[in-house]
Amino acid sequence: MRAMQMRGWMVAVGVVVLLGAGVAIWMGHRSETGADAAHGDAAHGSGWNMISAGGDTPAGQPAATAKTMSPEQVRTRLFKDGSFAGTEPAGDWCVAAGKLKACPDLRKRFEYYILGLGEVQIGDIRTLVADEAQKAQGEALAKDIMAVWDKYWQLRTYAWRNKFDQSDRATWMPVFEEQHMVRRQILGDDWAKAFFDQDEQNFKQYYAQLESGQPPPPDPGEAVPQMAPGKDPAAVRAERVARYGEAAADRLSKADEEWADWERRLAGARTEWNRLQSAANLSDAQRKQEMQAYINSNFKPDEHLRVQALLHL
Questions:
Q1: Is residue 141 pLDDT above 90, yes or no?
Q2: Who's near 11: CB < 8 A, 6+ residues apart?
Q3: CB 3.0–4.6 Å: which of 21, 49, 92, 187 could bond 192 by disulfide?
């Protein structure tokens, strides 16, 4: 598993697994903060931001200002020099008996590659996915897989009309109904059900329980109470304990500390790299050598690739 890119995601997923799924996860909404925001559901959300509003670049095309990379260039950028190093793709191609079958693991496979956004463009990711699918399944099945990819990216960048407000339950069903309908319009019934049926069933059960007046289980889909300037740490911890219990509150506190430490060290690394780049007495090779020494001194070995990728070393 990727070291620092995935660490915040794994903490969030750990809470979800511990406490059960929540409405914000099912609805596909999340927040992004910090240096890893470009990695979508990886850093600060549920780990699966299934549909994010906005996005203008079609799935089959690179950004207008970027040159399209070859599959091997993308593979090298992500798996050798970038944050995918040492990882294996999640999910599966969902091919059985020589045919593509609708199953949820293809969504996981797509989301794994989408985590590369920020290091490469979406057009480059599509190029890589198409090449990987062809190598694994052959040209004909790869075309079928990429047809699903294009529809999924269209859905993922769809501009939703209804807006979700966690504090206003009147907004929940319009959002759910719109997403339920659009998923089937774009993906078709089979793939929409494979990708989203469990999420939708969970949401309906949760919503029905709230409407019945019964107290719901702790909901990690709600924004986790976070530390921020001006907030009372004791009050934040008390709210976490009330929602999730002592053990989960302890884990969240530890995650806060780890994330703050990471951001502090990363900010220091950016400052040091800026200083070295402006040092006229150093050659490019000397700058990189000194920066590598700084990284070695301030980051764990499994963090090195992530730092290098974020600093574009």
A1: yes
A2: 251, 252, 255, 258
A3: 187
DSSP string, the chain: --SHHHHHHHHHHHHHHHH---HHHHHT-----SGGGGGGGGTSSSS-----S---S-TTS--TTSPPPPHHHHHIIIIISSTTTT----S---EETTEE---THHHHHHHHHHTTBTTB-HHHHHHHHHHHHHHHH-HHHHHHHHHHHHHHHHHHT---SS---TT-GGGHHHHHHHHHHHHHHHH-HHHHHHHHHHHHHHHHHHHHHHHTTPPPPP-TTSPPP---TT--HHHHHHHHHHHH-HHHHHHHHHHHHHHHHHHHHHHHHHHHHHHHHT-TTS-HHHHHHHHHHHHHHHS-GGGHHHHHHHHT-
Alpha-carbon distance of 113 to 93, in angstroms, equals: 13
pLDDT recorded at residue 157: 95
* pLDDT class of 12 with cuts at 50, 70, 90: very low
Separation of alpha carbons 157 and 220, rounded Å: 24
CA dihedral 292, 298, 302, 303 (to 10 degrees): -80
pTM of the full predicted structure? 0.56
Q: How many residues does the chain have?
A: 313
Q: How many CB atoms lie within 10 A of CB 290?
A: 16
Which pLDDT value is given to residue 54?
A: 37
Burial of 271 (0-12, 13-18, 19+ CB in 10 A): exposed
Amino acid, single-letter form, for residue 101? K
